[in-house]
């Protein structure tokens, strides 16, 4: 039988899982993470601004390096996550005078992308730029520079690491709607302006109680048709606890639909689940009473419904 990544690779794509530093000391966990199911990983926290530049001009790459080392020794590639984001942003950034924000942002991007040059194949350069209605989120970056911060960030990333694929990444843009229209218009404009953008990330943090995103495959395809890659970057499918067979079956359908959408779109480069096991999922701490979002349970056992649905969507048996 083939692993998820082997099945994806046969279609020219990767299948990956996020991870985090604390989990790397859990040997039962790392046995699965590095055991062949996943050909790619994303650090869940350790390349973010608060981890890499907690104080202005003082950089720390130890935790990010540890993820890279694990990945390299287990034949996994790394997506860098994330250079410019309003969350997990040290307070010093938000306290800067407006004129200082651009130089601080460009320096951050330059230092971090230079350090990880050759170690990450892609960067989420800008994460979560939009509000739900498609307006730009009022972050320190937007407030100081307006929407041009996105182009400035992408250009700085390209200058620091010319070989990395540069992405803008967001959630609730998986299907058609106001927020994905805003992302579409942004990417179209960036391409028209000659700004270096290589891909769009669709986080795909889904919940069975909210329904499946509208026309995901068509949505991915319209971005691909702009001339960028697309990727499913943070997939998980949560439910209101407790689990039962009906919810598990719905969850499996969601996993299948997402993977099938990626398989159907030539420029969809791969799928990353936001860790592989409920033991380390972010969901219960943010959505009280919800969870069971991943294809492996909290005891690191595969959930046959979700796992087999992914296998089948990847063309396996
Ligand atoms: O490391 C500290 C630890 O020292 C402390 O004892 C503990 C107590 O609160 O907190 C630990 O930090 C937590 C960190 O995860 C590491 O576990 C933070 O509180 C917690 O807020 C942080 O959550 C992360 C979250 O982003 C923050 O926004 C999740 O792990 C991470 O999975 C999640 O990932 C995001 C993506 O980056 C962007 N898209 C949405 C996705 C889910 O929120």
From TrEMBL:
Keyword Signal: yes
Organism: Dactylosporangium sucinum
Keyword Signal listed: yes
One MF term in the entry's GO annotations: endo-1,4-beta-xylanase activity
Protein name: Beta-xylanase
Residues annotated as domain GH10: 18-313
Keyword entries, A-Z: Carbohydrate metabolism, Glycosidase, Hydrolase, Polysaccharide degradation, Signal, Xylan degradation
Reactions the enzyme catalyzes: Endohydrolysis of (1->4)-beta-D-xylosidic linkages in xylans
Catalytic site: 234 (nucleophile)
GO biological process: xylan catabolic process
Domain of life of the source: Bacteria
EC identifiers of the protein: 3.2.1.8
Similarity remark: Belongs to the glycosyl hydrolase 10 (cellulase F) family.
Enzyme class, spelled out: hydrolase
Stretch of the intact protein here: 31 to 347 of 466
